[in-house]
Every structure is written in C-alpha cells, then in structure tokens.
Design goal:
38% of the residues lie in helices and 19% in strands. By secondary structure, the protein is an alpha/beta fold.
C-alpha cells in the first residue's frame, strides 16, 4: 500500500511516558486517522500488531536500538524488517545514513540488502544529508525522509528548533522518489512550509502525540514572564 500525499502522524511513546503501551498507541493512531491522517508511523512489532486491525491507512513501521555512541538506530537488522513485515507494516523505515551499524554495514548497504531480500517491500530511508538521501535512492529506497537531520554527528550543527527546509528542497531536486518531511514540524504553518519546499508528505509526531513535550514547550515559553 503506497503512501498518499498529506499528513502522516507518528504515534510513539518512550518507556516512562504515561502513554507508553499498545493501548495508547492504538488510540493515538485511531485518533489520527479520524482527524484525516493519510498514514501512521509506529515503533515496535507489538504496536504494529495492535494497530493494524483498527486502521485502513498505511502503516510505516520501525524498531529502535542504539549505536555505540548512544544515538538512536532505526531498524537495526534484517530480522527486525521481517518481523515488521509479518506484523502488517506497509512501509519499513530504516536509518539510511552513512554511519556504520553494529553489523558493520552502512545504512545505504542495509537498504540494498533489504531490497534484494524483499524486492516488493516499500522502504522509507531516514537520512540526515543530501548525499545520504541520494545514495539511499540509488540503493532502491522508495521514499526519502529528512528524519535524522540534526541528530547525527554529521548534522549536529543543525538547529533543533525548526524543520530542515533546505534539506527538503535539495532532496527534491536530486532524487526522483517522494521526499517525506520529518523532524521538528510543530505547527500547521511549518507543515505548509515543508510542503511548499517540495515535500510529498509531512510527518508530525511530538506536536500531536506527545502531550508531555507539548506541555514543556508551553512551560518554556511562559518561563520568562511567570513571576
């Protein structure tokens, strides 16, 4: 099931959140679909299994582990990919940066291996740079997402306050696959800016499904005027 253009809602909760667990993730996903989301993005096999019977929109799925430096690694292994496919995912999201994975391969090589083993599986390459996006596209990725801009050693100079609109523009010019805008999109206005920059679809997560983060934004904004 291919992704339609529009809003994709990332329904995730980390351990320690009051919303952690399949019941809450399913509720977030159902609410997103009722609101008009064209797809949902989920982390974890159990969450995919919990949500799949309740939504008809495409599910983008991933797992999370970590690199040796502690940074998040999106969908580490071929076993993870297979489990997500069997759980009912329509699109698999993978870290497609040039960082070396624990198994010794780069994200680009990982994309190529997945496509060799599951040629009909749709892949979303989560990248940090134009170069990584171009390489992932050449390796067979079906969608190129800006998810990791600002979160890798190569891009840690990027602002974590605003979306990387320039990366969207450059990817749109250099790859033929749909570009998915993801990362730090917190308002409808920013979502429109991402689409105007050339995005095919926009992923919004924290601003919709993470009440703790939303509350912190308001608290931080009020801090200078609260006496």
């Amino acid at each position: 099931m291919r992704l339609p253009p529009g809003l994709i809602v990332s329904c995730q909760a980390e351990p320690g959140s009051p919303f952690y667990g399949e019941t809450f993730i399913r509720a977030f996903a159902e609410a997103a679909v009722l609101g008009g989301a064209v797809a949902v993005r989920l982390c974890g096999v159990d969450n995919v299994k919990a949500v799949r019977p309740h939504v008809s929109v495409p599910i983008i799925a991933l797992t999370k582990s970590a690199y040796p430096d502690g940074r998040v690694l999106i969908t580490e292994s071929l076993a993870d990919v297979e489990a997500l496919i069997q759980a009912g995912a329509d699109v698999i999201a993978v870290d497609a940066t040039w960082r070396v994975r624990p198994q010794g391969t780069t994200g680009t090589e990982f994309v190529r291996r997945i496509k060799q083993q599951w040629p009909h599986t749709l892949l979303m390459a989560d990248v940090d740079t134009v170069e990584a996006g171009v390489a992932a596209a050449a390796a067979g990725a079906d969608y190129i997402a800006t998810t990791l801009s600002g979160y890798t050693p190569a891009t840690e100079h990027q602002s974590l306050d605003t979306p990387d609109l320039e990366l969207i523009r450059q990817l749109r010019q250099q790859v033929s696959q749909p570009v998915i805008a993801e990362g730090r999109i917190r308002t409808p206005a920013q979502a429109r800016q991402a689409m105007a920059a050339g995005a095919y679809a926009v992923v919004v997560g924290s601003a919709i499904t993470r009440p703790v983060e939303i509350t912190r934004w308001f608290v931080a904004a009020l801090a200078p005027v609260v006496h």
